[in-house]
């Protein structure tokens, strides 16, 4: 792990200890700037665990505040973390926001994936939430069918029994919705036993709330009030008013039903206040999402421009400033890579220069010399295919590396280049300048070259053999000279 990551581990630990949610969001935004997050897996897991810890202690308002940045972080991390992590968190947030249509769409998308383990706790938990979502959308038959499937899974896999409380609560709520009250009390009694040992506060509150609603439905007012009061006491002890606001509404309705209007009005006022706060928090969440999207767009733009700038610098370092073709540095790097990959046998290297170029500079001036070099490169590039690597390696010296031609094809190409240069009209300041090129050609198959320099040395020897024998030709071997 690099220094930035090590620093961030300590930083996130401190932010978590301080319950500094804004600081955590800022850190997430820093992480989102990186293309590769695999070095930050430990940090990401700590952030996600922090979010789930908030849920377990019913700090839903804070969880929702953190949700959008964490969702983006998980989505960007699916290459090295489980895709289940993203969907589990995303659907949970949609559910908490009462956005059941989005939750259902996310569940449907999740179950189309083919890599979940049916007995993993995360998969199982998502199935339970899927049941709840269908129930909230009044899709009772779908909810009941899914619940039966979950109960069968529980019987075949004992480790999933930890979810029995949730299953009982959902089953009781479905039965209450269907009016099958004779089956509800025994289920809720068992649920109460489980709730007393369950560490998730939300599950306990749900159990107490269902008991109060059940006793209200069967006309047992005292029991209903007692369980509502127990629910509210648990809510207040755990500062869970925000996510359990519906209980205040149900209690207000119960009190009004039995003529306790003043207390009902007070309870309903609490519900309205919480609802207004939730509405404002939803607006704030939308603002956070908008700001985050704008921030990420700006960072994406910055990253794009930085990438382009880096590419420009890289190209400038690899390209000849005058001609725009590759320079000597790049050609040497290219050849070295080929030798490291032990594929030099497929290389054919052509090394050439302009005959008597000094005369051009002395007669017409260096500006004319620069012009004809640029024009020469344009002429030669028109004959080369995309796989040829063309570089200026000195003032009037050049190399072409062929990687996809046979030796015969390379010979033909280099001779065509020599003819093209010879026939081309180089005109500068209305003066026509005649040029020719001489070079040496070497195939990687000729011998066991031990380095790029060894191969370049042989092309260099053949280049000067061409100069000695007959300018304007390509020398292929020692016996190839036309002296």
Describe this entry's structure for a reader.
With 483 residues, this protein is α/β, with parallel strands linked by helices. Helix content is 67%, strand content 7%. The protein is built from 19 helices and eight strands. A six-stranded mixed β-sheet has the order 1-3-4-2-7-8. Helix 10 packs antiparallel against helix 11. It is elongated and about 115 Å long. Residues 1-7 have low confidence and may be disordered.
- Kindly estimate the percentage of residues that lie in beta strands according to DSSP: 5-15%
Beta-strand segment tally: 8
Sheet bearing the most strands, described? 6 strands, mixed
Query: Count of helices?
Result: 19
Indicate the radius of gyration in whole angstroms. Answer: 38 Å
Order of helices and strands: HHHHHHHHHHHHHHEHEHHEEHEEEHE
Mean of all residue-level pLDDT scores:
83
* Shape verdict: elongated
Q: Describe the strand arrangement of the main beta sheet, using strand numbers.
A: 1-3-4-2-7-8
Keywords:
elongated, disordered N terminus, 483 residues, 8 strands, single chain, two-stranded antiparallel ribbon
């Amino acid at each position: 792990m690099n220094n930035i990551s090590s620093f961030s581990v300590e930083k996130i630990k401190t932010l978590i200890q301080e319950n500094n949610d804004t600081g955590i969001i800022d850190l997430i935004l820093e992480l989102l700037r990186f293309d590769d997050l695999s070095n930050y897996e430990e940090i990401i897991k700590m952030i996600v665990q922090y979010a789930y810890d908030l849920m377990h202690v019913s700090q839903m308002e804070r969880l929702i505040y953190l949700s959008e940045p964490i969702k983006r972080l998980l989505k960007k991390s699916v290459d090295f973390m489980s895709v289940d992590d993203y969907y589990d968190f995303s659907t949970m947030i949609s559910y908490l926001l009462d956005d059941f249509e989005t939750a259902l769409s996310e569940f449907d998308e999740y179950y189309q994936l083919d890599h979940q383990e049916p007995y993993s706790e995360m998969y199982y938990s998502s199935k339970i939430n899927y049941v709840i979502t269908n129930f909230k959308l009044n899709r009772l038959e779908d909810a009941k069918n899914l619940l039966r499937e979950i109960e069968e899974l529980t019987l075949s896999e004992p480790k999933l029994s930890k979810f029995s409380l949730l299953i009982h609560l959902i089953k009781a709520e479905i039965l209450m919705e269907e009016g099958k009250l004779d089956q509800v009390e025994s289920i809720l009694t068992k649920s109460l036993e489980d709730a007393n040992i369950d560490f998730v506060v939300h599950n306990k509150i749900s159990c107490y709330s269902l008991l109060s609603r059940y006793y209200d439905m069967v006309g047992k007012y005292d029991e209903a009030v007692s369980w509502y009061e127990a629910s509210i006491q648990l809510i207040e002890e755990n500062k869970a008013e925000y996510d359990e606001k519906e209980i205040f509404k149900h209690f207000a309705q119960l009190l009004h039903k039995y003529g306790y209007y003043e207390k009902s009005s007070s309870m309903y006022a609490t519900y309205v206040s919480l609802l207004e706060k939730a509405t404002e928090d939803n607006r704030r969440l939308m603002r956070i999402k908008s700001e985050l999207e704008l921030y990420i767009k700006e960072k994406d733009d910055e990253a794009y421009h930085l990438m382009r700038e880096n590419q420009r610098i890289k190209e400038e370092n690899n390209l000849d400033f005058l001609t725009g073709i590759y320079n000597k540095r790049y050609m040497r790097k290219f050849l070295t890579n080929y030798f490291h990959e032990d594929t030099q046998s497929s290389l054919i290297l052509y090394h050439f220069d302009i005959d008597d170029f000094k005369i051009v500079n002395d007669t017409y001036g260096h500006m004319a010399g620069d012009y004809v070099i640029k024009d020469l490169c344009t002429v030669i590039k028109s004959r080369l295919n995309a796989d040829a690597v063309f570089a200026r390696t000195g003032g009037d010296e050049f190399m072409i590396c062929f990687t996809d031609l046979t030796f015969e094809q390379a010979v033909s190409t280099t001779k065509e280049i020599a003819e093209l240069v010879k026939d081309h009209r180089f005109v500068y300041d209305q003066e026509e300048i005649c040029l020719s090129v001489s070079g040496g050609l070497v195939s990687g198959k000729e011998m066991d070259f031990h380095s790029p320099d060894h191969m370049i040395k042989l092309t260099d020897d053949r280049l000067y053999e061409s100069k000695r024998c007959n300018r304007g030709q390509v020398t292929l071997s020692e016996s190839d000279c036309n002296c």
